[in-house]
Amino acid sequence: MSGRVILAPLAGIADSPFRLLARRFGASLVYTEMISAEGLTRGGRGSLRLLDFEPEERPIGVQIFGSDPERMASACKLACKTGPDLIDINCGCPVRKVVRKNGGAALLKDLGLLERILRAVRESSEVPVTIKIRSGWDQLSPVAVEAAKLAQECGLSGITVHPRTQADGFSRKADWSIIQEVKRVVDIPVIGSGDVFSPEDAKNMLDRTGCDAVMIGRGSFGNPWIFTRTNAFLDRGEVPAEPSLEERIDVCLQHLKLAIDAYAEPAGVKKMRKHMVWYTRGMPGCKELRLKLFTLESSDQVRQAFSEYLAQAERKQGAI
User: Fold this and answer.
1) In this structure, are 81 and 47 located in the same domain?
2) Closest CA to 5 of 279, 251, 255, 234
3) What is the CATH classification number for the domain harbouring 160?
4) How many CB atoms lie within 10 A of CB 36?
5) For a surface tag, which of 39, 164, 255, 319 has the fewest beta carbons within 10 Å of its beta carbon?
6) Which of 170, 203, 236 is at the close of a domain?
7) Contact 293/272 with Cβ under 8 angstroms?
């Protein structure tokens, strides 16, 4: 991997079209959406489909989650058959339906079980294994440093730290000092995650924590330019201008084409609806545009809606 800006594994968002676009705009590494070890080992179609990726997405990591060491090891073997560049173990998802089955961030409550999972997956993997954690289950049980040491002892190749607890969800400000603490105690690469919404945020995280790379999640929604702009800032100290109205719409339509290629119509258009909300965020008259976009089911209709929107915007600009 070259570069220091990474796309987060985003459930329900970071599908193949999203990952392709992120790579084209400069993300140095992408991940699949998190995949259930239970679903994979039982042959679930939805879980197996999440393993699909295009060569252009490389380097790519497959992220798996679960709470049973043997099943996690079996899921890892299945995932390795698709030829990913690494396997990532999710120990950070705070969502109730995941943690109530002892998956995701719930593993941080039982480091003994976590160790068994880490060793089982590492021993069964044909590629490097990494882990993504939160700082702990709640504010009373910070375990990020201990979990990071454990990951290194078990032979993992890297760790991503999102410095919020499971109880925090996304409500508290990310405590970047925890990333710094983890970086101090391990020799394996440390990726920082949390509250990176601009090139300046990324540089601040790298400077303040000493982490090796920055992972961007919510900051990439409708904003693949964040990778290009952040790379430019880190490499040359310059932040390129924000994309114009026309550029935002053009890339949204590129994303739409990728979605249609992957899912056909109307499924691809429907999957794009949330992305179109993000792409149009802050645009003049975006409320009315979004209401219209949410009624459409074909790519031609979406293109026509954007064409009409741009024409109207030009008329308004010309009248000023």
Assistant:
1) yes
2) 234
3) 3.20.20.70
4) 21
5) 319
6) 236
7) no
Ordered per-residue pLDDT tens for the chain, 320 residues: 568 999 999 999 999 999 999 999 999 999 999 999 999 999 999 999 999 999 999 999 999 999 999 999 999 999 999 999 999 999 998 888 998 988 999 999 999 999 999 999 999 999 999 999 999 888 888 899 999 999 999 999 999 999 999 988 888 899 999 999 999 999 999 999 999 999 999 999 999 999 999 999 999 999 999 999 999 999 999 999 999 999 999 999 999 999 999 999 999 999 999 999 999 999 998 899 999 999 999 999 999 999 999 988 877 765 55
Kindly state the DSSP code that residue 142 receives in the 8-state scheme.
Answer: B
> What residues contact residue 135 under an 8 Å CB cut-off, 6+ apart?
142, 143, 144, 161, 162, 163, 164, 165, 175, 178
Q: Which of 228, 238, 240, 237 is nearest to 3 (CA)?
A: 228
Helices in 242-320 by DSSP H: which ranges? 245-263, 267-279, 286-293, 299-319
| Residue matched to tokens 């000493």 | 210
Which H or E element spans position 192? strand 190-193
Structure tokens at 239: 């932040």
93 is catalytic: yes
On whether the pTM is more than 0.85, the answer is yes
Considering the candidates 76, 80, 91, 93, report the single residue annotated as catalytic: 93
Half-sphere exposure of 60 toward its Cβ, with a 13 Å CA cutoff? 27
CA 122, 131, 102, 79 dihedral sign is negative
Are 146 and 276 members of one domain?
Answer: no
Whether 25 contacts 225, CB under 8 Å = yes
Q: What is the DSSP letter of 174?
A: P
The Cβ of residue 42 has, within 10 Å, a number of other Cβ atoms equal to 12
Crossing angle, helix 69-80 and helix 111-124, to 10 degrees? 30
Q: Which residue segment(s) compose the domain that 15 sits in?
A: 5-236
Last residue of a domain, one of 197, 219, 236: 236
